[in-house]
Every structure is written in structure tokens, then in C-alpha cells.
Amino acid sequence: MRDDLPDDVKGHIPTNLRLLLLIEQVAREGVPVTPAAMSTALDLPKATVHRLLTTAEDEGFLQRDLDGRSYGPGHRLRQLSANTLSSQRVRTERLLIMKNLAEKVGETCNLAAPGRYGMVYLDRVETHWPLRIQLPVGTQVPFHCTASGKLYLSSLRLERLKRFLGAAELERKTDQTITESGALLSELDQTRSQGYSTDDQEFMEGMAAIAVAVRDDQGRLLTTLSIHAPVQRHRLDDLRQFLDELSDARAQLEDIIQASD
């Protein structure tokens, strides 16, 4: 039973509150959750939980995991999260942080969040250079060959990551794209150990990128903050020189996100 539920709710959750609390619990867990675990967490009958999960899945707020039993956030819940993060006050503050970063490094910076099939750009601040790479807000890019996507994959638990790799098509985008699951696992191990991820012309020829994770107060990845540049100006080793600036901006973003909780 959840200890943070109000005393007047425990044991007899009002009908109109049950679906909201179930969705909140799935989001809180951060990993796919089984109906049995949800029944225990919310102190609700299994039949009730199954009915609520079916409704949430049908409406797109939750989706079934690869094991066919567990549930995680669906596209509407992810969109709700993105819209919440994009509330005017928070968005104004984060765009200012991103603008300062873009001015310091002289390149475009992006904020992205995991979607159903890839990373989705939530915000970006463009470089002043006429030569730039156009990836507007709302663009979805692959997990396996982008700095933001590989950072997200590196945050997954090993069993879930292996399920993803077993089901995903690692499409070749360039000659540099990693398309073999064992090689990608090694790359993700390195990403975890070094604390940032890279894209060395793996998604798009002529583009390099580097990304760090923006986390919540429980250490879970919420979004990624990245900078990318044409290799004519900055190759990957050049972008690594901006890690301090990128990490400072990440810390500022985490401060405003946690302050808004």
C-alpha cells in the first residue's frame, strides 16, 4: 500500500480517483509495472486494476510492455509529460539556459525526451551560423544512432534494454551507424561509465553530437540536453571540450525542474 496516499483515501479510493492514481503510480515506478504490483501498491482488487489498465491502454495513456504483461507510459501520457514540462514559466527559464549554452559553445542545443519510437525534440536554440542542421521541435529521431537516444537506452535496466534490442530494427543511417546489438551494448556500457553519449556521424553524415542526461530528484532520466554541429566546424573531439558548459546547463535545468515539482 502506498504510504503517501491521504489517510481518507487509503483502503477506499474514490472511483473517480482510481485511474489517476494508477497512472501516477506507473509514472512513479519508472519501469513497466505488472497488474499484481499495481493491485498491491494501490490496495485495489485485481479485477479493478485490470479494468483500469484496460481503459488506460485503450485511451493511449498506458501501453503494454514487450513481455505482454507489464504496463508503462503510453503516447498520451508522454505527451502530457512534455506539455507539463513546456508550461510557460518553466519553458521560459529553460530556453534562457539553452540560449546561454548555445552562445557559449556557438552551436545548436536541443532538449529531447523519449517517445514511443525514438527521441522527440522538445526545444532547441539555433546557432547563429548560416550552415546548420535543421531538426525542428517535434522531430523524432532514432534511439540507436543519436546521442540523445543512446543516452536514453543506457539508462534502461539491462533486461529491458535486451528486450528492446531483441525487437528493434537497428537501421543503418550512415556508414558509421552501429547495427549489431552486441556492439551497441558495448557502446552503451561506455556511455554509462563516462556519463555522456556521442554521435559521430552515426545518424547523419557530416553531423556530430554530444548529450548529457537531465534527471529528476530520484536520478531518473527525464530529458537529454545535447549540442550538435556540422563536422566542418566541430568534430566529435571538439564537442567534448564543451562538456563542462553542457554539464553546467544540465544542472541548471535540473534545478528548475525540481523547483517546479
Structure overview:
By secondary structure, the chain is α+β, with helices and mostly antiparallel strands. It has two domains: 15-72, Arc Repressor Mutant, subunit A (Orthogonal Bundle); 79-259, Beta-Lactamase. Helices cover 46% and strands 17% of the residues. The chain has ten helices and eight strands. It has helices at 15-29, 35-42, 46-58, 75-85, 88-105, 147-154, 158-167, 181-194, 236-240, 243-259; strands at residues 62-64, 71-73, 108-114, 119-125, 140-141, 197-200, 207-215, 221-230. The strands form two sheets. Strands 5-4-3-8-7-6 form a six-stranded antiparallel beta sheet, with helices on both faces. Strands 1-2 form a two-stranded antiparallel sheet. Helix 5 packs antiparallel against helix 10. The protein is globular and about 60 Å long. Mean pLDDT is 85; it is low at 1-10.
Low-confidence parts, pLDDT < 50 over ≥5 residues? Answer: 1-10
CATH topology label of the largest domain: Beta-Lactamase
SSE order in H/E notation? HHHEEHHEEEHHHEEEHH
Order of adjacent strands in the largest pleated sheet: 5-4-3-8-7-6
How confident overall, as mean pLDDT?
A: 85
Instruction: Indicate the CATH architecture of the largest domain.
Output: 2-Layer Sandwich
Number of helices: 10
Q: Report the portion of residues in β strands.
A: 15-25%
Coarse structural class: alpha+beta
Q: How many DSSP E strands? A: 8
* Rg, Cα atoms, Å: 20 Å
The biggest sheet, with number of strands, parallel, antiparallel or mixed sense and barrel status, is:
6 strands, antiparallel
Q: So, the CATH homologous superfamily of the largest domain? A: GAF domain
How helix-rich are the residues, as a percent range?
40-55%
Shape: globular
In whole angstroms, the N-to-C terminal distance is: 23 Å
Overall structural domain count: 2
CATH class of the largest domain: Alpha Beta
